[in-house]
Amino acid sequence: MSMQSLNQLVARSIIDPGIVQAFTSGSMSEILDEMDLSPELRSDLGQLEARSFVEFAIKAYRIVKASEARLLEIDLPSPMAGLIPDRDYLEDDQAA
Amino acid sequence: MMTCTKNERQWFLQNIAQGLVDYLSVMRPPVPIEDLLRNPPALYDSDFGVVEMNSELWDATFARLPDQSGHVFVHSNLDPETRRFALARETLSALITSKHGQKMGLFELVEPHLRESAEFFARILLAPPRLLCRFCADDRSVMKMVADFKIPIHAASKRCEELSMA
Asked: Are A11 and B22 a contacting pair, CB within 8 Å?
């Protein structure tokens, strides 16, 4: 959802001067508050330093992408799951 | 100037192209690129325009007149698909040289890779992902894309390649 929100922000920025104005006036936090972001991401993006809105967006993209990659690592089962015999199972087998 | 990868640049370009498609409220292909240039968002009133020309040098090119108004000068005898692609491609030059585009920092992002970026932008603007999902979900062949989205074969072919890698 976060990347989708960032995509929408960039899409809006090309026709909505308010977004670039918010960036240049240092009030991006108000825009970020409207976005569907986790508190950690909102804080990380709020602290970004950039010389232009494009630079801000690219840096935000890197942060959101890295955060989503970390979430995937947590959620996905290991590809080895089910391939390596369970230690307890092996021990039971040997005891028998 | 910040450095960024091709993927990052294309991500940004894809989203601003989608922003223009959203502005046009396009529900089905083809994307009305000429309408966008002739009736632009207020922000680009003095940046978008179309002027017919007969030049053997190019299909279309973007230029600003001495009063700074921007226009795409397009060859008047192009086939409709080539014309649409050329107009979409030159739209990026209008955006990056506009006051708003410069405030955004678009010029710095795109200028070192202008040709490649403009062609990518044109492909996305004329065949945006959401419309492709809706209208080519079952058949993403080059010819279907050419027929529905009214883009040249080379652009449809490249767009199919991009979709297969996404």
From this structure: yes
Mutate to test the interface with A, among B36, B102, B104, B106 (most CBs of A within 10 A): B104
Tell whether A20 is within 8 A of chain B (Cβ): yes
Establish whether the linkage from the previous residue to B30 is cis, with ω within 30° of 0: yes
- Residues whose CB is less than 8 angstroms from the CB of residue A38 and which lie 6 or more positions away in sequence, other chains included: A2, A67
* Contact call for B18 and A7, based on CB within 8 A: yes
How far apart are alpha carbons A60 and B158 in whole angstroms?
28
Residue A87 to residue A92: CA distance in whole angstroms = 9
Interface check for A66 against chain B (CB to CB < 8 A): the answer is no
Domain ranges of chain A: 2-75
pLDDT tens figures, A26-42: 999 999 999 989 999 99
Give the pLDDT band of residue A96 (cuts 50, 70, 90): very low
The ipTM is 0.94
What is the tens place of the pLDDT at every residue in B47-81?
999 999 988 889 999 999 999 999 999 999 999 99
pTM, rounded to two decimals: 0.88
* Residue B153: other Cβ atoms inside 10 A: 12
| Rounded-to-integer distance, Cα B61 and Cα B94, Å | 10
Q: What is the DSSP letter of A80?
A: T
**Chain A residues in contact with B125 (beta carbon < 8 A):** none
Asked if residues B125 and B33 have their Cβ atoms less than 8 Å apart, the reply is: yes
- The answer to whether the CB atoms of B104 and A20 lie below 8 A apart is yes
Nearest residue on chain A to B104, judged by CA atoms? Answer: A53
- Residue keyed to tokens 């449809």: B156
